[in-house]
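fold-stage: in
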Amino acid sequence: MSKEFTKISGGTLYDPANGIDGEVRDLWISAGKIVAPPSDPQIRPTCTIDASGLVVMPGGIDMHCHIAGPKVNAARKLRPDDRRNAEPVRRTARTRSGTMGSVPSTFATGYKYAALGYTTAFDAAVPPLLAAHAHAEFADTPCLDKGCYLLMGNNHYVMKSIRDKEPAKLRAFIGWLLSRGKGYAPKLVNPGGVEAWKGRNGSRNTGLDDTVPHFDVTPRQIISEVAQAAADLRLPHPVHIHCNQLGMPGNWQTTLETMRALEDRRGHLTHIQFHSYGGGDADEGTFSSKVAGLADYVNTHPQLTVDVGQVLFGETTSMTGDGPLGHFLANLYGRKWISCDVEMEAGCGISPIEYKNKSLIHALQWAIGLEWYLMVEDPWQVMMSTDHPNGGSFLAYPQIIRLLMDRTYRSDMLKSCHPNVVKRSSLADLDREYTLNEIAIITRAGPAKILGLIDKGHLGLGAAADITIYTPNENQETMFELPRMVIKAGEIVVEQGEIRSTPQGNILHVDADYDREVEPDIQAWFEDNYSVNFANYGVE
């Protein structure tokens, strides 16, 4: 049986992983992969897509978002008001119906990501005990390849192994958790701090060298030991860290110490904007940007990467595995909230939030995020995210792209903010403008490299045929919010904003190579402490 080919003809390619920066080339696709042109000149493509004058990039990759699992579903239930006035996603002959708002329903999430040119997304905080819930929602999220990071920073077995100085058990347990929960990477959220909050009558300011009650370990030890275990397991993505003291004035010092705790190991610090604040302890009057010093450290340590967690102005929902943060925000703004304790493993906090450009704090958060993009010298070290939906919706990515590519637009936006922002940040002095090649790095090639996805984020031979075609426009927001065409594994998924097909997508997870002889110890501990049966744990 002869192969069928699709040819994308005459597009202007931006493929940073292969050193292609705005070159006119053809792409050939067969069996869902990018292939070499047929050697037989008599072979003609079954389908030819004329991309003359259009921009061709790999499909987008969101490496840090919250789109599935128990906390996302709880947020949907908490906020019916958020969806009430949002335009619904209507059912069509090809698509299911759904709801929008800051936390879209599963089907709507897949359709909207695809319509932006994204073909892969990772949920960033799933408790292993509830991983089956996340995977059930992944099954209802079409058009995307999906994966998740599993929460480990407050796991009792993790802390027990560190306390008892048993790195082999820790390494095996992390490998077992990832394999059993079908996760992709270990995630630390406020390591040790969530567990300490539960036992300290509401105190959430756990520093890196404070001792976690009962376990006699520090957050610094958790970060260091889990990072080493991830390296020893040779995971494709290193430890993924949500630092302690998120959102608090003065937390930049904790962030810097977290970077230092990694020493020469690889590590990814997520939604770094929320961890880059100067000021006195809980003193909003001295709140300021401390990006410059942190970015300097990242610039001199190539083993470190970050995603930004950009704040956008408007109403959204804060949801996090950092239960203390959820409690703090609910008290700060007087809004409704949900908190959840996942036995032996994690916590969760959810509350509505509205970012206002006339608020000094919110406007500084907006500016601090942009500073990160503009101050990290190597775009391969800083990735685009809004920590969806915490800083704003993933639907705002085109606006962020315009802010990075158009300094005049950025300056105009800054002028609409609280006037003291220019005194407490450096944004007004930053003239850098991103190129299309750099945008392709921070939204595609960079995430693929950091995640170890060898067949994604590029357009070379053997790559998955996940491709987005854009119509150039002087207004970059217009260009990126409506791709001309989106192709997933060689299949046209979106054309001119219309969903053409709804492929299921793959689940991306690791099957870690760990010492199986430790499993009896894990099972004995599990059966002594959990309320569920060991055989029922995880994802089949």
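fold-stage: in (second)
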Amino acid sequence: MTYEQSPLGRLIPSTDQSLSTVDTSTLREALMRLATPVCMTNEGVTTQGTVCFDPQSTQGTPLTGLALPLPLERCGDAVFCAAHGLRYPMVGGSMAKGISSAAMVIELGQHGMLGFFGSAGLPLETVDATITQLQQALPEGPFGVNLIHSPNEPDLENALVDLYLKRNVHLIEASAFLSLSPAVVRYRLHGIHRDGQGNIVTPNRIIAKVSREEVARHFLSPPPQKILDELVAQHVITAEQAALARQIPMAEDVTAEADSGGHTDNRPALSLFPTICALRDTLHQEFGYATKPRVGLGGGIATPTSAAAAIAMGAAYLVTGTVNQACCESGTSDIVRQMLAEARQADIAMAPAADMFEMGVDVQVLKRGTMFSMRAAKLYELYKRYASLDQLPVDERDKLEKTFFRASLNDVWNSTREFFLKRDPRQVQRAEQDPKHLMALVFRSYLGQATHWANDGDTSRRMDFQIWCGPSMGAFNEWVRGSFLEQPHQRRVVCVNLNILFGAAVLTRANTLRRQGVVLNEADVLTTPLTTEQIKECLRD
């Protein structure tokens, strides 16, 4: 081990302190003790002593490397953690249809992290029952619930907001929004007021997932005046509350969502994150908010290396997603967990989204072991080419009935019609007047059921599984190869997230030494996942 730069200062050892020999195991252990500094000299490594930076000093030993303590609590924004009652700046993002399950949210919450229940695509009564479960298990939090934008079903979005307000859910993760809806603005402003000191208090908070500047601008700005006027006219808020609303951002926390599973714009984190931060800074200066909005990073956070990069860029918090789906607590099936555990970075594809099918919006899914992406793309191709089911060529119709739906398209429409008569009757009325919309609903039924088949582990439908997945799943699998986390049944959500954050902190300290000229071998730095107990032992110092 050699050093390429002049000493940083002088290390004066503590009384009766001896330096440990600089070898791989000693340095790695020192780096893992995050609460203590790592002081390096040509003679050894220690976690104690006095550092002197006086260039004239001759006391002690030349200091060649210094890594300061880095508790996990300080790997993000301390204000973010305090605002949401967290110990760690780690967030389990929402995954629709209960994939980010109550069990997952509770586990994260009980260990100082934040989880969001994936309410999208679930019946209201299921969401209602889950909120009760979360409030009983985490009466003081932290937890949140998802609100996904539903441009084709605004009544559903309104119904969810009504439920959240009724059940006193004070934190949501807003996802897949293209613009602000009256429903999400209504949620944000519910109960807004000034306290006794004149501060604006907003009981309801939003963490918005965004991957585009224009969407980020919506959430980092005050609510639109047009929507405020509508809410005042409807007596949902008062004129005084509307005036207060013009002084706050729609979201105090915005997640820059890079290349992720599910809804994604496939944006690279290295360009997306600084762009969103720059926009945040501009809007904060323009509107003069009392609290500067915070920017976290999600999409691709699956290894200590990617998490360390996010920390280095200044992410207020880290958001994990696909790796959580592969954990035991997720609301999917064992067969899906096994498929995810076998995924590599190239085993993904884009496919039409069920909730935004007519708009041509895609989601990122697992390609390996399933034909969903190809079949979904075929449905969208037919939708674009033909005006109705009746116009489909006979051979195409036969293929759909025998391979995709395994039923006649008339029977599929009848079952789809029954579904929407309960969920949104206006969709049925429109379909009966517009054959192309009827075709869209039928095709969307395949896309929607494909997720249920996967979550239920229906082996007869394995080729039709829709599994939301980003390339980071492959990176995670490569990192844990040969360790206990290689096996799906060993993947617990708290252990996985702690390993990512803990490993990132160790790498951050190691990278500090590298920047000071210390030449490190890969074996000097933690690379192997640890059990939760092993991590906690390292954190006890």
